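Q: Convert this sequence to structure tokens.
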Amino acid sequence: MTQDSKMPEFLINRRKLLSTAALGAGALAGLSLAPSMARAQTPTRGGKFVVGVDNGSSTDTLDPTNIIASAGVFASYQFGNRLLERTADGKLGSELAESWEPSEGAKRWNFILRKDVIFHNGKQFSASDMVYSLNRHRDPASKSSYAPQMKGIKDITSEGPYQVSVVLTGPDVNFPYLMTNIIAQPEGEDPSKGIGTGPFILTAAQPGIRYSFKRNPHYFRPEQPYFDELEIVVINDDSARLSALLGGTTHFASKITPNLVARIKSAPTVKVDVADTTTFYYFLMRTDQAPFDNPDLRLALKYAVDRKLILKTTQSGYGSIGNDNPINSIYPLYSPLPQHEYDPDKASFHYKKSGHSGRIELIASEAIFPGAVNAAEIFQQSAAKAGITINPKRVPGDGYWSDVWMKQPFCVSYFGSLATEDQAFTQPFASDSPWNDSYWHRPEFDKLLAQARSELDVEKRKQIYHDAAKMVQEDAGHITLMFAASINGLAKNVQGFVGDHFHGEAKNFARCWFEA
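A:
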């Protein structure tokens, strides 16, 4: 990321990784969260922590194989654990697995499990539960975004009650990173009920409205969590979400839009956390439908976007411009490509070559990413200079993921944090990925991904990913606008928050506490 300027004092300093249903005031009126400004030296227990998040709707599910909206992602980190976790410095850390190691040239991975883990329904966590949880994502009928990456799994077995062995079809040095995503669930329970091993127990779920939790007294990290209760409130409207934080009805507000950060500067009870991320915002073209099945039209639109102006206008400069592929400098095997600059002449050339004429409708919703509608309007203006007519159409956020995304031919979208280069390429672009939202299918691209997984030489693997990025940049259906900065607001009396680039804000709530 490029946000290198010195942050004001009210910002929490963050290291950059080099390797890695809106609610009205009435719905929140019952919450009383007056913060204490006395500083605590050690963690204290108690209290109810209330989180305001965006991007939730009535169609959301808590089934880990089909969680799409960020409200569901936030909830999943409260009720669930994974075998491994990504630490704040980008490394792999233990969660439900005590240890892990490869054998047979990284074709087999062995995970030794913790023996002190209990599910929220009282069942002892064992290897058979983890095998069941992993296999749910591998099921041919699964909608899991991780299913394509699990195609390389030949077999998953339990070697006794506390050891899981995964045999791959070929070497994959990245495989353990996949285990930072798969939530352990008890076999025999409804997977959409949010039963897991996590720090908080789900007590009520109202998709698109709120999720309520209580402290898990049997959590395997006995010192955590510190809060007695936690509530996730869906507040899709950016101003309302910030107002809830400033007014003391929530303790945390996700995705503070850059244009609203100034409202926090003089607030005595609020602080801001800024982080670089691998999350990217993009305009999505379905390459299986006219007119976007024409590669010259796709390239024309990529040159017709003024990314610098969109970043400056919609994000106040936070984050960095995109380059029509999913990799940025946070990834350890990143290598730069020539930037797709705004070039009306090139855009006009490819547009005329495509033979297309007439309006192109772009569906946008502010609920998808901050400034999405404004970005579409800026695109309309920049494309007009190349003779291309873009017609932005604003729609509400509720139902967007079920009615617009992967259904309409041209819309705004985003991809959240992806742990490795393989995930970043596979989930959005692999031919067999259920989340290949541009319906882009290139056998030669799929072969590159398979080759990279079995390439043990780091420099050779880096070159493969460079080639894959170039192919996506020139031909795929994403117009990548920018990589987002994560800007979250916290009440001043919240301590222990240490974020990272991979959903750190959500998974760190168990580590936070209120000052005494």
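The longest helix spans residues 458-475.
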